[in-house]
Amino acid sequence: MDLLNAIVAFLNYVFVPGVAYGSQLALGALGVTLVYGILRFSNFAHGDTMALGAMATVLVTWLFQSWGISLRPLPTALLALPFGIAFAILLLLGTDRAVYKFYRVKKAKPVILVIVSLGITFIYNGVTRFIIGADDQNFFDGQRFIISAREFKRATGLDEGLSFKTTQGITIVTAIIVVILLFWFLNKTRAGKSMRAYSDNEDLALLSGINPERVVMITWMIVATLATIAGVLYGLDKSFKPFTYFQLLLPIFASAIVGGLGNPVGAIAGGFVIAFSEVTITYAWKKILVYLMPESLEPSGLVQLLSTDYKFAVSFVILLIVLLFKPTGLFKGQAV
Amino acid sequence: MNDTLKNTLLFAAVALLIMSVGFQQSWNSALLIIAMGLISSIMALGVNLQWGFAGLFNVGIMGFVALGGLAAVLVGMPPTEGAFAAGGWGVLGALLLGAGTILLAIFVMKRMDAGWLRTLAVIGVLVAGFFLFRGLLDPSVERIEEINPAQTGYLGGLGLPVLIAWPVGGLFAAAAAWIIGKTALGLRSDYLAIATLGIAEIIIAVLKNEDWLTRGVKNVIGVPRPVPYEIDLQNSAAFVERAAGLGFDPVESSTLWVKFLYIILFAAVLLILMWMAQRALHSPWGRMLRAIRDNEVAAEAMGKDVTARHLQVFILGSAICGIAGAMMTTMDGQLTPGTYQPLRFTFLVWVMVIVGGSGNNLGAVLGGFLIWFLWVQVEPMGLWLMNAITSGMAEGSPLKEHLIESAAHMRLLTMGLVLLLVLRFSPRGLIPEK
Amino acid sequence: MSDPYGDRGNKDVSIANPKGMGSEIPQRSGQTRPAPGGPFLIGENMTAGYGNGPDILHDCTIAVDQGEIAVIVGPNGAGKSTGMKAVFGMLDMRQGHVKLDGEDITDLSPQARVAKGMGFVPQTSNIFTSMTVEENLEMGAFIRTDDFSDTMAQVYDLFPILKEKRLQAAGELSGGQRQQVAVGRALMTQPKVLMLDEPTAGVSPIVMDELFDRIIEVARTGIPILMVEQNARQALEIADKGYVLVQGANAYTGTGKELLADPEVRKSFLGG
């Protein structure tokens, strides 16, 4: 019985939140890794792209809510998501036309594009705050739980409850669907293969008749889609606040680098590695240990390795360890 | 138009902008812009050394600046009575133990043959060390934080003159830069950007969390000053008399005088650093640096140790940021870990360097002043603009309210726009490298 | 003056992909003019260089006719590869023309030349290492809208080993096999002329012989071949036409046999 309780507590406090957070990071890291692979630079504006895409979704959600349209028991935001994605696609394509393309034509070095993306970060950040403000925004509606802790306790008779939030369920299901679609696209379609070819060898792709501008356009469209989905899922699960998206940049970069920059499989793996390290190292294990240890050995403290404020430190230390042992990341990235 | 004339005009234009603030708003604001402009210029000088002369991409400026701030507290604040006796030795012991653990792990790593046994040994050392560290640290920390938590609850500082903190801040930043550089520049390829981004966040997390060191989010206030306090000046008959003689009222003149003194101090630091930077760059060392930047392969072939040069310049540049950070905390009179944001302390400095002109020290200074002026003045300008735009709208309309309320966010937008415009139309900056 | 778009020697892989941004290719108008007569493919009196850099080719002429193998040989740094790239449109042409099949294509971009029927195998980075052999061939056929399974079968007939390894990543193959993938990729467009830049660079002598055999086989299917070779003697033996370049200019021109027999050429370039 104690063992079961410990397992349920582990699932409830570590596993389920870890999987949900990992999915969000993975989706974010996929966007970063695609830009790195195709456009050759690390996009500092990715966090703010997530924020803008999510913001558009939030606004459309509010509009739908005011019209009384809902998707009960699912959150209305899912209905608004396509509009958010469309907005983000237009935004990124517009940004590319107005800003990035100039440097691509000039064959500017990737570092210059990184600096350009710093400028874009400022602008996106400003626009988001200008339109929706800097505060927390709630846009979640629908049923809160798939399994609530109370029902779970009643049904199983255990002391520990397992709660599974709707947002966590949606996050995980959406992430799986998106990842399957993305890999199908990259490996099976002509456009996807041309993207991989371009990422592998730009000159040869050109000689093969692949149109670089088209590849870049498709890439931005996919990146916009991934970023918006990641942003909305994170916003539903936690809350929508422009600044938190900017802060997500570090764990997202860490995920992409741990997995191997430019490698989509790596981005997903990296997302989960970072998420689980963050959750396990900052979780207070007392609750679980109490069930597993005899009373005399019960821990007196919280058994929390590091306070939650150090979660960035965790991403970073994991990153450092991976880089020291495997400089190209867990999966062979392009950084050779 | 020759370069000297053009540069003079550029600086004159910025001076004019700042003076217009003096005439239209207040001379206090204008002097504050100058003082912060000086600090910004120093930060930009440090980053320009790294990026402009060595091509190193540092996105952890915030962390180095914050370390400088920490130095101001540790040097300038009086020691908390009884705190050191309560837990100081414990904390010091724990820190030494932590450092020892890492050194031992590195030693094991270097001495043992690669394999699972080594991995296990390293992990074993680190885990055991971590628990010992926490076991020693936690009780000491608790004892320190128990001492008058509303006022102190931290170790306090050394109670030395705060000016000493400026070079110490540079040393703190240099030490952090050495550790980062050793790891991130020593790998097969550089990972400096992500390393600095991460370390900066960690430094801020430490400052926010380790109450025994910095009082965390409760902030340390009342950091001693190198200049007189306004209230003392106002109570000084000689000062009031002199101010009255010049036609100033005592309150305004005391605030102006204090800012003026800070400006003198900051300007002296800037001039010294600028002189040193210029000297360094025209020395054989600086020429080698640029040779490496422009053709690393050739420089390496000539036997230049590229990694060592990069490490040196990274440490120097970061130290300069640390000095600037200590100066800033000194002027603010308080350390508020919650206010360190990457946009303000890292990316804004980058905008200064790029706009001013990468690779040109004079450009960095110009960029520092210009961008700081905009950072401060865009908000009132935005408000004015929004008021102008919405003047035709009905009073109390939601759009009008939203627009006026949002004027505060114009500042980030403007910074991005300025950066992009300069990159597009004057990609080498306002004062390009020669 | 520093380059405003340069990276200042930055080597930070956490922000910048070390693969960089691809080669600079000159902008062209894309106009063609009829130019009847002459050989099937000719780069005529080419004077060319990279960007605003110095001229590398000086009044250099390279040509290949139907059913021929033409070989460019010469000492290191003679501009052999550069000549090839100039014919393919990757350099800035200051003077001269490139004509293909009775058309002046000097103002076409490299991609447009591929569409006109030129196949080019660069000396290095000539395959997509992270993609499978089959995907490499598919990418070779990217501009084709018709069914290219026949062509792929022909390539597999020509290079049986590739069929065996078709699901393996091309980067995992041996040097000789990689070159086969590279040639196979270029053949997928069904080119009217094939240009090979040192196809035997870095492979063992046995593999080299086999590659030469395959190249002759390709030529027998009626595709004219223009190639640069380091192994001058062997290359001239199979060549219908040979060009010896020195410092970016034609030094000797003749049939392969003539050049092999020429005492001057033997002494200077074939080691006696």
Automatic annotation (TrEMBL), chain A:
Transmembrane domains' residue ranges: 20-39, 51-71, 77-99, 111-132, 168-186, 215-236, 305-325
Membrane topology: Multi-pass membrane protein
UniProt-listed GO biological process terms: D-alanine transmembrane transport; L-alanine transport; L-isoleucine import across plasma membrane
UniProt keyword Transit peptide, yes or no: no
Keywords annotated in UniProt: Amino-acid transport, Cell inner membrane, Cell membrane, Membrane, Transmembrane, Transmembrane helix, Transport
CDD domains reported in the protein's UniProt record: TM_PBP1_LivH_like (cd06582)
Molecular function via GO: L-isoleucine transmembrane transporter activity; L-leucine transmembrane transporter activity; L-phenylalanine transmembrane transporter activity; L-valine transmembrane transporter activity
Subcellular location: Cell membrane
GO cellular component, as recorded: plasma membrane
Family: Belongs to the binding-protein-dependent transport system permease family. LivHM subfamily.
PANTHER family, sorted: BRANCHED-CHAIN AMINO ACID TRANSPORT SYSTEM PERMEASE PROTEIN LIVH (PTHR11795), HIGH-AFFINITY BRANCHED-CHAIN AMINO ACID TRANSPORT SYSTEM PERMEASE PROTEIN LIVH (PTHR11795:SF371)
Protein name: Branched-chain amino acid ABC transporter permease
UniProtKB/TrEMBL annotation, chain B:
Main location: membrane
Parts of the chain that traverse the membrane: 32-49, 56-77, 83-108, 115-133, 153-179, 191-207, 256-277, 311-328, 348-376
Any one GO CC term of the record: plasma membrane
Annotated compartments: Cell membrane
Pfam families assigned: BPD_transp_2
Keywords recorded for this protein, A-Z: Cell membrane, Membrane, Transmembrane, Transmembrane helix
GO molecular function: branched-chain amino acid transmembrane transporter activity
Lipid bilayer topology: Multi-pass membrane protein
The name this protein goes by in its record: Branched-chain amino acid ABC transporter permease
Provenance organism: Sulfitobacter sediminilitoris
From TrEMBL, chain C:
Residues covered by region (Disordered): 1-36
Family note: Belongs to the ABC transporter superfamily.
Molecular function terms, GO-annotated: ATP binding; ATP hydrolysis activity; branched-chain amino acid transmembrane transporter activity
Domain ABC transporter per the UniProt entry, residue ranges: 41-272
InterPro entries according to UniProt: AAA+_ATPase, ABC_transporter-like_ATP-bd, BCAA_Transport_ATP-bd_LivF, P-loop_NTPase
Biased composition (Basic and acidic residues): 1-11
This protein's name: ATP-binding cassette domain-containing protein
A GO BP annotation: L-amino acid transport
Superkingdom to which the source organism belongs: Bacteria
SMART domains found in the cross-reference section: AAA
UniProt keyword terms in alphabetical order: Amino-acid transport, ATP-binding, Nucleotide-binding, Transport
